[in-house]
Amino acid sequence: GPALEAREALDVLMGKGPTSVFEKSNELSGILFELAGLAPPGQGATLAADYITKGKAKAKMEEIIGVQGGNSSITAEGVAVGEYTSDILAPKDGYIVKLSNYAVKRIAKAAGTPRHKEAGIYLHKKVGDFCKKDEKLMTIYSNSEGRLTEALNLAMNLNPYLLEGMIMKRISSGGPRS
């Protein structure tokens, strides 16, 4: 949902966010720097990373928030999320071999997204991750107890995560094969 995405974006600007989000943001920003002529070809990602690590990107975000009349000193923790939450736990030890985008979308919508900005899903685990029994897979946020219950029921029926005992891949000159 929007609030969780805002939290994640602020975390990345503070150097605390998920590596995958930093990498994607960095690559896209780098391409934009190159297209705008602000960085030579192949150097945009380096410039973008520099903006984040030196706090320039965070300062620009604060400036934009301030110009729009918002709280420019907001932190990730300061972004309100749904007061009703529930965790979906791993039923067993194993590797995440599949995560259904369809199921995640349906669960998030049941929780109230995108209409209610505080609602959403935080995915603690992604495909390829190992998890132990009862470890958090996802947290569902909603601003309504009824919507949270509906989202939980969907999560139990749709089983968004598929766990297996092991992942085996063989790498050859033709690329990875399962």
Radius of gyration: 19 Å
| Total discrete domains | 2
Give the overall pLDDT as a whole number: 89
Instruction: Say how many strands there are.
Output: 8
Sum up the overall morphology in one term.
Answer: globular
Predict the CATH topology of the largest domain: Aldehyde Oxidoreductase, domain 3
Major pleated sheet: 3 strands, antiparallel
CATH C-level of the largest domain: Alpha Beta
Strand order across the largest sheet? 1-5-3
**What's the name of the CATH homologous superfamily of the largest domain?**
Pyrimidine nucleoside phosphorylase-like, C-terminal domain
Q: What is the number of helical segments per DSSP (H or I, 4+ residues)? A: 6
**What is the percentage of strand-forming residues?**
15-25%
Poorly predicted ranges (pLDDT <50, ≥5 residues)? 168-173
**Strand/helix succession:** HHHHEEHEEEHEEE
Structural class: alpha+beta
Level-2 CATH architecture of the largest domain? Alpha-Beta Complex
Proportion in helices: 40-55%
Measured between the Cα atoms of the first and last residue, the distance is: 33 Å
